Amino acid sequence: MDHEGLLEDLIDKTVDTIFADFMSRCAKLEELAYAGEGFLRGFYREQEICGRAPLYKTSSVVDEVINSNYTDKLVEYVEAGFNKHENVVKNISKLNSCKLRLEDYLIKAKVLLDELERLKHNAIDIIKHAIDEHTSDCVFNFLEDTKTQQSHSVREDAQESLLLNGSMSRSTLMTIIYGMLKLEFTMQEKIILSLNLKTSSSLLESYCLFWELRPNIDDNLMHQAWKYVSG
Fold this sequence. Notes:
Layout: H1 3-50, H2 60-68, H3 72-79, H4 85-146, H5 151-163, H6 166-194, H7 201-213, H8 219-230
Domain DUF7795: 12-130
Coiled coil: 102-133
Keywords: Coiled coil
């Protein structure tokens, strides 16, 4: 193998290592998002309990039972919205816990996203440097051999040969995947920051659906990326 071939092989292996590291962090981010979905659904569940309608407004049978057994204890229970005080405190505590865990998710996810961006830039910088070195050598050799002014055409040919190799494919995938994950994180961040005790049940249900569907992620592209790692 000539010097040029050895250099390209070294670059490809380096980018391949970076890509594997990139995808392992994608897997960690996916696991984190799955846990985040659980916390969001927990918030939704506790919010449903907190905002449920008083039973006497939804059932004639319950209303009849209340009217025929109007003890002080039952009156207190009804006035509390059919919730015991300790249950209300526990419910609010769980809501707060889910919100805090979701906020912690944002911090951890942002760290992983920053690491993904760094790895993406590392791969791109390596390839750009290789292209610059490669095209400079090609142009110099071409001018020395032919003494013409057609260096622009030679530069394009040299760049094309590098752009088609495996390292560029991986760096392109990293760029696209990072963009998708950043969009997904932005959506999740908006959801989490909007959560409060007044968030409606229907809105929370939509939030849970969006989180589960991952609308910004192309699953086919992710499968293709994992084939690079396993292959």
